[in-house]
Design a protein that fits this description.
The chain is α/β, with parallel strands linked by helices and 283 residues long. Helix content is 47%, strand content 14%. The protein folds into two domains: 176 residues, 3-Layer(aba) Sandwich (Rossmann fold); 86 residues, N-(1-d-carboxylethyl)-l-norvaline Dehydrogenase, domain 2 (Orthogonal Bundle), CATH 1.10.1040. Helix 7 packs across helix 9 and helix 10 packs across helix 11. It binds acetoacetyl-coenzyme A.
């Protein structure tokens, strides 16, 4: 695959990870977010990750420098001469719809528009554009540089050409793409989030402590992180947003978000990123 020009919209933990992997795979990355400071923070995270790999002897210094040189901060979403835009903004429908309208307007006609959404309908996002055939889901897992999976989600209008392009790119980026149809939560979060929600119910109902629930799943099921540690890692606001999409999308009460999850989000206890969720984090 020829090196591409890729816009990554959203420089948070997912967007920064996607930008890093794309740049390490030889592509030019235009990194955008609402404010320049957020882009700078994203680039600082990428620099730190690459630095750590160099220190461990897993990456040559020149490779780090070349990857960083391929990433440009792009504060304005206008006239983007790109082959692909990957949207990795907050998991909020109105925000994503507005971004897709903008990307459709400002990206070159050839560009594919991909969303890293964890649960929102790709068909709906495609409907906000004049190029629904070139809109697709490209759902990376967190932490992006480490996790091998990319769910590739076809909206009902997504063309075969767009699917093939995305599938090939994911492989070229060293990931394993899995084709998934456009239903709420796709596969990853349809299976993962009800487990996390149930773990929260177990705490809410006093069945066991946070630590005990996590220990059961780590030692009993060999999960690398317990579900509540993982919820803090994903972000409790994102967990709630995904449960809402499952609940609304299927209209099935088995997906009702746990009231304790709602309460934590209302309190601003969003997990690692705010220093407090089911656990507290220093620094
Ligand atoms: N960014 C980049 N690299 C990271 C990282 C990060 N945030 N965190 C860890 N790493 C790297 C480390 O540098 C290390 O790399 P090397 O092997 O090259 O040295 C490697 O990952 C292992 O890290 P550690 O030894 O520090 O820690 P660990 O062995 O406990 O692994 C983990 C950390 C990979 C995060 C592991 O705990 C894990 O797999 N957790 C589960 C993650 C998971 O389930 N992710 C999916 C979340 S759901 C999602 O993303 C979808 C959604 O829509 C919500």
């Amino acid at each position: 695959m020829q090196p591409l020009r890729i816009a990554v919209v959203g420089a948070g933990q997912m967007g920064a990870g996607i930008a890093q992997v794309a740049a390490q795979s030889g592509h030019t990355v235009l990194l955008n977010d609402r404010e320049p400071a957020l882009i700078e923070r994203g680039i600082a995270t990428i620099r730190k990750n690459l630095e750590r790999a160099v220190e461990k002897g897993k990456l040559a210094g020149e490779v780090r420098d070349a990857a960083l040189a391929r990433i440009a901060a792009t504060p304005a979403l206008e006239a983007l001469d790109v082959d692909l835009a990957i949207e990795a903004a907050t998991e909020h429908l109105k925000t994503k719809l507005a971004l897709f309208q903008t990307l459709d307007r400002v990206c070159a006609p050839r560009a594919v528009l991909a969303s890293n959404t964890s649960s929102i309908s790709i068909t709906l996002l495609g409907g906000a554009t004049q190029r629904a055939d070139r809109v697709i889901g490209m759902h990376f897992m967190n932490p992006v540089p480490v996790m091998a999976l990319v769910e590739v989600i076809r909206g009902i209008v997504t063309s075969q050409e767009t699917f093939d392009f995305t599938d090939t790119l994911a492989r070229q980026m060293g990931k394993t793409p899995v084709e998934v149809r456009d239903f709420p939560g796709f596969v990853a979060n349809r299976v993962l989030l009800p487990m996390i929600n149930e773990a929260i119910y177990a705490v809410y109902e006093g069945v066991a402590s946070v630590e005990a629930v996590d220990t059961v799943m780590k030692l009993g099921m060999n999960h690398p992180m317990g579900p509540l540690t993982l919820a803090d890692f994903i972000g409790l606001d994102t967990c709630l947003a995904i449960m809402e999409v499952l609940h609304d999308g299927f209209g099935d009460s088995k997906y009702r978000p746990c009231p304790l999850l709602r309460q934590y989000v209302a309190a601003g206890w969003l997990g690692r990123k705010t220093g407090r969720g089911f656990y507290t984090y220093g620094g």
